[in-house]
Write a structure and sequence with these properties.
The protein is α+β, with helices and mostly antiparallel strands. It has helices at residues 24-39, 45-59, 63-68, 80-86, 91-103, 186-194, 198-204, and strands spanning 3-4, 109-117, 125-135, 140-144, 179-180. The strands form two sheets. The protein has a three-stranded antiparallel beta sheet. The longest helix has 16 residues, at 24-39. The protein is globular.
């Protein structure tokens, strides 16, 4: 069961230097989400969350996926606005952008961290970020994974059964993170801040919240 770290819902609506929804780029992105909904079927809470999630998931590739495909990318995104500026981000940065797009609309959003193997070739455990979103219309938290899909990843919006990017394999030492943090983990921000390139970031990925 998901466990908010605080009962103060206002904590999940705050703006910060990382969740910078006062930035012009983030405000414009939120308006783009609203416009897409208005042209479709309206703008209910659930529809806004789904559209914002799919926008972050699909419009901004995962930085490491770009590297693996041979694209010449190097900038490390951290703030929500960085993802919009750079056009990509890893799971941490993309979770910051999704939180910003939800909080600017008055929808509480936080962060959960799973411990997963970096890859089948590299068994070291690293943190993987997903968002937790509170839906007032349903009276509950749900988790969404905006990491970005590929052949072996199929994360989807769902208010029932979760469809996250990766299955958690406890037999391999992996752990599911059920605590909903109001702000990004300090170790995550530190890793992003001290990494000058994406190659540095691969070496600096945290394994503890």
């Amino acid at each position: 069961m998901l466990k908010p770290e605080t009962d103060d819902m206002g904590k999940y609506l705050q703006m910060s230097g990382i969740i910078d929804f006062g930035h012009d780029l983030v405000r414009a992105a939120a308006e783009e989400v609203r416009c897409c909904l208005e042209q479709a079927s309206g703008c209910s809470e659930t529809e806004y969350v789904k559209t914002a999630f799919e926008y972050v998931r699909d419009a901004f590739p995962h930085s490491f996926d770009l590297l693996r495909s041979g694209k010449p990318v190097s900038r490390v995104s951290c703030r929500a606005s960085d993802v919009l500026l750079n056009g990509h981000g890893i799971c941490y940065a993309k979770s910051h952008l999704l939180a910003a797009l939800l909080r600017i609309a008055g929808i509480p959003a936080g962060f959960c961290y799973q411990k997963l193997r970096f890859s089948d070739e590299d068994p070291s455990l690293v943190l993987h970020a997903v968002n937790a979103v509170y839906l007032y219309s349903l009276g509950k938290w749900i988790r969404l994974d905006a990491r970005g899909n590929r052949k072996d990843v199929n994360a989807q919006f769902s208010t029932g059964r979760e469809f996250l990017a990766f299955p958690v394999r406890p037999e391999l030492g992996e752990q599911d993170g059920l605590i909903i943090y109001a702000e990004p983990a300090h170790n995550v921000i530190e890793a992003l801040a001290k990494s000058k390139t994406l190659y540095d970031l691969m070496e600096n990925l945290p394994y503890e919240v």
